[in-house]
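ugh finaly. both done.
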Amino acid sequence: MDALQVNYGLLSELEFMGFSESRAKKALQSSGNSSIEAAINWLIDHENDPDDDQKSPDDDQDDPTEVPVIIDIEGPSISEEVESRSQGLRDRARSKMEEEAKKLEREREKERIQSGKELLMAKRRAEETERERFIAQRKKDKEEERRARDRVRQKLLQDKAERMGIHGASLMNEEKRQNPLVTKSAPLPDYSAQRTELMRECLRSLRRQYKEDDTKVKRAFQTLLIYCRNVVNNPNEEKFRKIRLRNPAFQARVGFCREGIQFLELCGFERVGGDQFLFLPREKLDMAVLKSAGIVLHSAITNPFFGLLSK
């Protein structure tokens, strides 16, 4: 009878599971060495069969029906097969992870590109908004300058009329004597508007003269505003209506430019004490003039283009 070969790898697996060598060989021999599952199934079906390891000494005699076993030691083991399959699974898992990582990186790159585009669009919109605001402000300043020129032109006409006032008054009196029905007099010029425009022109001149030093100009405007505010809030306090011209703080903030002193003189301050002081007499204090000065100063401080667009 031909001897059946026993797969050494399958035999080792069965022994590792706890089966005896004889029963493992018998199971493999009976299942035709087909697979480890077939051998286990045979062992389960014949678990009550007597174990060859428990045979009596008499049974050690040669059994003519015993089949010689030839062990194949060159067959691949189950462990090697399992390890090979595990390695394949690991390789596929690593490849899948690498592919997912690449896909995630591509998605992130798309997001970065989209964010860059959105940032660029936002920057362009901000620049366009700033450009429109600048154009609108420049248009507003030009309109203000035009109105200022009109007011100056009107002032020149009024000054001319004032210079001819004496002659005009004599002609009017003569006309009244000749025609007693003429009683309506000509309207008086608006001196407050003229003074306000002169204040504004002083500040423009100061701004243009020191346009490279914005901090110095703003400090001068703020100091003038404080002088006007103190007089308005404390009209009866002489210390707020008197300024020593040689005071170092005054010289550093306002006195360094003649426009600053001219502005205070337009507010009603007068030189006294041999040009050592600027003094605002209580009886000459005009709240309307000081409040107009405050409005002009506030506009000059808050408008970044004040005095820069005019020539």
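ok and the 2nd:
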Amino acid sequence: MYILNDPSLLSTWSHRAWVACGCTMVLVSLAKSIIGVANSHIWLEPILAGLVGYVLADLGSGIYHWGIDNYGSALTPIVGAQIEAFQGYNKWPWTITRRQFANNLHVVARVVTFMVLPIDVVCDDPIVHGLVAVCSGSIMFCQQFHAWAHSTKSQLPPVVVALQDLGILVSRSQHAAHHWKPYNNNHCIASGVWNGFLDKHKVFEALEMLFLKQGVRPKSWSEPTSEWTEETESSRKR
């Protein structure tokens, strides 16, 4: 259960260190792309690679979000804590706006650090780094984009509202549909550009059928109970 001022929502120095490491890896990759462009005078391909990276980041965020929303538990190895946080967040979605910045990003920042570090060391290709920098940076910050999608317009900086309205960041209205019955759509949380395609073609439902054949039923197929459905912040204060 989450309460206001819950210590589990606060950032620690460990969280901040991991976010700093992740940001460093992303910035090194971006710098190598920019330096490579300056030296080789090719600029179109790295820009296109960056756009592809952003689109892939949105797809990846949706697949991961769908997976941990529907499968596993706090006891799942490696990602159990994040599964517990996401499935608890479905009941108390407002908590994501109360998580401090590094607390919200540190888990993904660890993954980004270890995945991008070897690429930074061995690769100098500006096209590769254009893809890696934008994709990894977007993946690392998608939880912040997600938190903004749960905030009211008055709480957000004007530039964030503008980016949401332009579809560059996942919008508040689009992500709100994720928390309405039947709780099985709009999983992508970077830009949300994949949500229409994935939901229209029932991609996640097809994947759920594959899991069902193995005897594993997704949580979104079950009739929501008080242990899973959304509880508003105001109801927690009563």
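summary for the 2nd one i guess: Residues 16 and 36 are 30 Å apart (CA to CA).
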